[in-house]
Design brief:
Blueprint (H helix, E strand, L loop, with lengths): L11 E4 L5 H7 L7 E9 L5 E5 L2 E7 L8 E8 L4 E5 L9 H12 L3 H6 L2 H11 L7 H13 L12 H9 L6 H5 L16 H18 L5 H32 L2 E9 L2 E11 L4 H4 L4 E10 L3 E10 L2 E8 L2 H8 L2 H10 L3 E9 L3 H17 L7
Parallel strand pairs: 11-12
Antiparallel strand pairs: 1-4, 1-6, 2-3, 2-5, 3-4, 5-6, 7-8, 8-9, 9-10, 10-11
Helix pairs in contact: 2-9, 4-5, 4-9, 5-8, 8-9, 9-13
């Protein structure tokens, strides 16, 4: 399904002859120069889009990123041998300045959240040194420590079947409320949970209390208070940057991008999880019954790994990529157990491949550039 360029320089959508006979018959009514509306109704794991045009649906590639649910004013550039549209309004939506700045902060330190969560013991020592002058109750301090532990995928939290579902709310990223508000639109869900139930709310409370204490008191414990406030503010900044990145990814893919800290032998590593639903309506309802997933991680013992999954009505297709052949063999040896686990969860595994592939970090960077940075039109580079 190659792209067919046009000399006008406008963004282009091209469609191959993979439509059904009915859709092929319907599109014969399209003539070069005709203007009409095309709606993006889905995206395939290959990166191709599903477009609804008049009374038929076709697969198409685009020279410019599109969003699911987006209505495009298009003009028929060519009808043979490929159907080609020029798109008049496919420029990326501009993001508010605060979101663009949050993305830039995240680019400077993409692993900030994981790095700060790894300093949980140091934070506990600061709490002990500052109490009770921090102005935060012992109960709230304990809640912060507990939440930081629950945000790490470890031997204890892996038993929590709702870990991924609750990760965003525990962090303070109320995705249906906060992200919509950050994007400048009206809230589409319930208000954030009450203070004390998420890390962001507790950190805001801590920072505010410490600011008052540092202004009114001096002397013993002040240096620890300054360090504690700096830690709280850094962690709040990391959460805000993650929210900004999610705004961009949601705008482009209508999905979720989670960075999950992973306990790897006492050292925290990071798992990048991208979830893109096939239909925009699945996002607000939280269903994701049909979606595509991309997962990237790098472990000390196994090296870089990636996985691509496609879920369609409880039918799963999975491709696992390992940078090391030794790792690929180790993973392949566990596929029997993986198949049993998938089946026990009520899913049917239609395809499973385990491959060796080099430069997975480069693949991850390119994925982020395409789905978050280039599509947002606000950030020029990703290193």
């Amino acid at each position: 399904m190659p792209l067919v360029p046009i000399h006008s320089g406008l963004p282009v959508l091209s469609s191959a002859s993979s439509e059904t006979p009915a859709s092929l018959s319907s599109r014969t009514a399209l003539t070069p120069g005709e203007s009409l509306t095309a709606r993006v109704t889905g995206r395939l794991p290959t990166g191709e889009y599903l477009l609804s045009v008049k009374d038929f649906t076709l697969q198409a590639t685009s020279a410019h990123p599109l969003r699911m649910g987006q209505a495009l004013q298009v003009r028929v550039q060519s009808a043979s041998p490929f159907l080609v549209f020029s798109v008049a309004d496919a420029q990326p939506q501009s993001l508010p300045a605060a979101i663009a700045e949050g993305i830039r902060r995240w680019l400077k330190d993409p692993g900030a959240l994981t790095r700060l969560l790894s300093q949980r013991e140091a934070l506990s020592a600061l709490f002990q040194a500052c109490a009770p002058s921090s102005g935060l109750s012992a109960k709230d301090a304990q809640a912060i420590m507990l939440l930081m532990g629950k945000l790490v995928f470890s031997g204890s939290t892996k038993k929590d079947s709702s870990f991924l579902r609750d990760f965003a709310s525990r962090l303070g990223m109320s995705l249906e409320y906060d992200l919509g508000r950050l994007a400048g639109g009206p809230p589409s869900g319930e208000a954030p949970s009450a203070a004390g139930s998420n890390l962001k709310a507790l950190l805001l409370k801590l920072s505010s209390a410490l600011e008052r204490t540092l202004q009114n008191e001096a002397g013993r414990g002040q240096s620890e208070g300054i360090l504690l406030k700096a830690f709280a503010d850094d962690l709040l900044g990391a959460i805000a940057s993650r929210q900004a990145v999610n705004v961009a990814y949601r705008q482009n893919e209508s999905g979720l991008y989670l960075q999950i800290p992973l306990d790897s032998g006492g050292v925290l590593r990071q798992i990048d999880i991208f979830i893109a639903p096939d239909a925009q309506k699945d996002f607000p309802e939280g269903k994701f019954s049909s979606c595509s997933l991309a997962i990237f991680l790098d472990l000390d013992c196994l090296g870089a790994m990636a996985a691509e999954a496609s879920l369609r009505d409880r039918r799963l297709r999975l491709v696992i990529r390992c940078e090391s052949e030794q790792t690929r063999q180790l993973v392949a040896a566990q596929t029997g157990q993986l198949i049993q686990s998938i089946s026990a969860a009520g899913y049917t595994l239609e395809r499973l491949e385990c491959l060796t592939q080099a430069d997975l970090e480069k693949r991850r960077a390119e994925f982020i550039r395409r789905t978050v940075l280039e599509a947002s039109g606000r950030v020029d580079h990703f290193a």
